[in-house]
Design a protein that fits this description.
The chain has 204 residues and is an all-alpha fold. The chain has two domains: 9-70, Orthogonal Bundle (Arc Repressor Mutant, subunit A), CATH 1.10.10; 76-198, Four Helix Bundle (Hemerythrin (Met), subunit A). It contains eleven helices and two strands, in the order H-E-H-H-E-H-H-H-H-H-H-H-H. It has a two-stranded antiparallel ribbon with strand order 1-2. The chain is elongated. InterPro entries: GntR_C, TF_FadR/GntR_C, Tscrpt_reg_HTH_GntR, WH-like_DNA-bd_sf, WH_DNA-bd_sf. Residues 7-74 form the HTH gntR-type domain. Pfam families: FCD, GntR. This is GntR family transcriptional regulator.
Length: 204
Amino acid sequence: MTSLRPVSTVQALAAALRERVLSGDIGPGAFLPEQEISARYGVARPTVREALAVLVHEGLLRRERNRSAYVPEVTSADLADLMYVRRPLEDLMAQAVAGRRVAAADAALDRLGSLPPDAPWAAVVAEHMALHEALVVAAGSPRLERLYGVLAAETRLGLVRLRDVYPDRDELVAEHRELLEIIAAGPEDAARQAVREHLHWRET
């Protein structure tokens, strides 16, 4: 028998706010006043404060002295710089995993493809991230994994913008399926080239 840990009110509120941020419901630059959130969700302000602190720690929100937490804006320049840093990291990944299937990445892609049409975009972001993180983990370098993890929050916020670029989710799934097939087939040069091409960020 598998026991389930109860989800605290703080965790539940953080999850609800996370989904709204990553689905674009709470957009870049939007503030999250504690009093408004407390009234909307029917929870005490200390609970709101703790939930917001969770998302600030994850990098999905920012907070400055004497101001409400807010969703940081990831500009086109930010995205370009993010890709500039990600490319050498994912190139190392491609060198390491070329010619291998990565079961965890395949599983994430299957979950992405199985999402219902009305699934929140946050679910798409989660599986998209899980796929790329599985490939990085498969490279077998804890340092590469840590470096990639530093970029996770900005990457997730950037992926919110893809909602308008991929109105047909099947296209997103097809692109990643092709990427995984090329990586699995190898050789190394083909895998590296596929990853480089994949990391050209589409503009909305």
